[in-house]
Design brief:
alpha+beta; Helix Hairpins; five-stranded mixed sheet
């Protein structure tokens, strides 16, 4: 592979992984399976190993996923909260055990094998026996403080009972949602005509980050504890001993825990767990194998993101063979035609599967998928099933390749494939399927967050000709909503209230919801901060837009083209005529913008300010606050317990500021 090709491939993989990190960790709405995601990371690791000249400390392979979101105070872990290396292979697992035994110069090492619960990693801090804080893993160094939401978990004691309690202890665990609670919530949403949640893990992750405490209280969360973080004074010498201590304190621990010696016993425990996990009341996607003795854990050490003394063995996604009885084409909000396999119903991962994604035209042709084929389907992590391969030896003799239509199956308009794209598109912007997609996107949690305006309701509104574009949402009347199927007086009132409340949501949500090409949530926030209003953004040209950090030429061209469209301009004007009044970020007085063009990272506990307050102060002076240190970082604002960000800043030569230094720079900036 040529150098240029290597660079392009590495950049593309990093961008793809970062997109899926955002979907999984921050939005709790992944679109690929864990196994597919892990393969992307392995591909990137292999390229970086073969071409170290392209290695980077900012690569996704060098850090844990980051679940930090706006709206929560962050807190620095006293001891870093790392992720685990994982494998799907027996050979790789045995190789892990061999590395451990070789490094320890010890045969038949003792291990603990535990269920790997598919939930949200959390660290619970107790001081003198009292619960003081619950924090997500975040970026491994610091996480979001979710104490207020964690207190709704019945199993989590507010105070530890017994004697000999440590002064300070961080207990690591997983917040999850039981399958029966997940089913209960989805049953309620079906009855209300709302979209169902995809799986228990996504719902648990979304719930712990909710700002609406009443809604958190209505959803029952559970927790299991399994790991020891910082502890003063030290109190146990082995993981198995700590598990017993957790049980004595009344904490819930894994459904089954095995203490074993050597690779063979560990492998036997993994297989036993695999055979039992369907009986557990929560989603389990693997086994965690830990070196038992803590002194041996210390001896083995860690990498930049994972301990060398533990590994997660991920169970392979369940597969099933069935018949592909038909292929339908779904049309999305941008007009893209996505092929979907209509399957002979089959049992897979505990549910009946009758549909599976075929991704796109090129992928279908590569796999040579045809109607009538026997196919292998896979469903990992409850994500939408996918057709993995065709069983060619069972192919009917009269099968024919699937021919994609020249016209849209929804509206009959022509389809076309744009240069450089793999997708086939419907060219009709008024296609009902596209209208539905745009409405669903606008109302989604990532955009205007209109509770109650999900897929089922949008379908009815379009099919009843009550809405044809996003501005029509604000023309709806109570009587129109109440006339919809499964709507009663209370649900109609709730939807009307949610629509009204959305008029004053943050400006970036509106910009994201408009569906401007290439403008996702991050770009929308940058645009909102820079322009402060839709009116100002509409007047911007490409040259002005590309000067904004994070806005490239293609995105700038898409923004300009969007607002030049008469149809789009009319919809935007209608929104404001109907009362849209988004909350704009505070505009910066340029005479006060002493940090213009500078990038800050904040870490540690500051003496007098909370982190959000420091961020707001820096942004009010024109600065930008990022989540991780890189060569582009101008200053690191560091408080107590600064951690790995301080180490990285020093290695890169980034200037480190104390809170006093920050105030000093602001004062000097005022007088200059």
């Amino acid at each position: 592979m040529k150098d240029v090709q290597v660079e392009v491939e590495i950049r593309a993989l990093r961008k793809e992984i970062e997109k899926h990190d955002e979907l999984y960790y921050r939005q709790a709405d992944p679109e690929i399976s864990d196994q597919a995601y892990d393969q992307l990371k392995r591909d990137l690791e292999a390229l970086e190993a073969a071409h170290p000249e392209w290695a980077s400390g900012d690569s996704p392979t060098m850090r844990v996923g980051d679940d930090l979101v706006e709206g929560f105070e962050s807190y620095v872990h006293r001891q870093p909260m790392m992720s685990l290396d994982n494998t799907y292979s027996k050979d790789e697992f045995y190789a892990f055990v061999e590395r451990v035994e070789k490094a320890l110069e010890f045969d038949s090492v003792a291990f603990v094998v535990e269920p790997k619960i598919d939930g949200v990693a959390v660290s619970i801090t107790y001081e003198n026996g009292k619960l003081v804080r619950a924090v997500t893993r975040g970026n491994g160094t610091e996480g979001d403080d979710i104490t207020a939401n964690a207190l709704f978990i019945d199993e989590l004691p507010g105070e530890l009972k017994g004697t000999g309690l440590p002064e300070i202890i961080e207990i690591r665990g997983e917040i999850y949602m039981r399958n029966d609670e997940f089913d209960r919530i989805n049953a309620e949403r079906r009855a209300a005509g709302l979209d169902e949640f995809k799986n228990p893990r996504n719902l648990a992750a979304g719930t712990v980050k909710m700002l609406d405490r009443n809604e958190v209280a209505r959803r029952k969360l559970n927790i299991v504890l399994y790991g020891l973080g910082f502890c003063q004074p030290e109190m146990v010498s082995a993981q198995s001993e700590f598990n017993q201590t957790l049980t004595d304190w009344g904490f819930p621990v894994g459904e089954r825990i095995w203490k074993v010696r050597g690779a063979d016993e560990a492998w036997q425990a993994i297989n036993e767990l695999d055979s039992l996990r369907d009986q557990f009341p929560y989603p389990t996607d693997g086994a965690v194998v830990k070196t038992d003795r803590l002194d041996q854990q210390d001896q083995l050490g860690k990498t930049s993101k994972a301990p060398r003394w533990a590994i997660a063995f991920k169970f392979a996604a369940e597969q099933a063979e069935t018949i592909l009885e038909g292929i339908t084409l779904q049309v999305g909000r941008t007009g893209v035609l996505t092929p979907v396999a209509e399957l002979r119903p089959t049992q897979l991962a505990g549910t009946t599967v009758s549909r599976a994604t075929l991704h796109n035209q090129e992928e279908m042709q590569r796999k040579d998928v045809r109607i009538g084929d026997s196919v292998i389907v896979e469903k990992a992590g409850e994500i939408i099933p996918a057709v993995i391969r065709v069983v060619f030896e069972k192919r009917p003799s009269d099968s024919l390749p699937f021919v994609f239509p020249e016209s849209c199956p929804e509206c009959g308009a022509p389809t076309q494939k744009l240069e450089g794209e793999v997708a086939l598109r419907c060219v009709n912007a008024e296609c009902p399927a596209q209208i539905k997609g745009r409405l669903q996107h606008f109302a989604s949690r990532q955009c205007m967050d209109i509770e109650g305006l999900g897929e089922a309701v949008v379908d009815q509104l379009v099919e009843c000709s009550l809405v044809s574009n996003i501005s029509d949402i604000y023309r709806l009347t109570y009587d129109q909503i109440a006339s919809l199927e499964k709507f009663a007086e209370k649900s109609a009132q709730n939807l009307m209230a949610a629509i009204e409340q959305s008029k004053t949501k943050e400006l970036w949500r509106l910009l994201h919801g408009l569906g401007v090409p290439q403008v996702g949530a991050t770009a929308a926030k940058d645009l909102a901060k820079h322009f402060g209003s839709v009116a100002s953004l509409r007047e911007a040209d490409v040259e002005t837009l590309v000067e904004i950090d994070g806005i490239g030429e293609k995105t700038a061209q898409g923004i300009v083209a969007y607002f030049k469209s008469e149809a789009n301009a009319s919809i935007v004007e209608s929104l404001f005529e109907l009362g849209m009044s988004p909350t704009a970020p505070e505009m910066i007085d340029r005479s006060e913008a002493i940090f213009e063009g500078m990038s800050f990272v904040i870490t540690g506990t500051l003496p007098t300010m909370k982190r959000d307050e420091a961020k707001a102060l820096i942004e009010s002076k024109g600065g930008k606050v990022a989540g991780s240190v890189s060569k582009k970082t101008t200053f690191l604002l560091a408080g107590e317990s600064a951690g790995s960000k301080l180490t990285k800043a020093e290695s890169l030569g980034v200037e480190v500021l104390s809170e006093a230094d920050l105030f000093d720079k602001i004062e000097k900036g005022k007088s200059s």
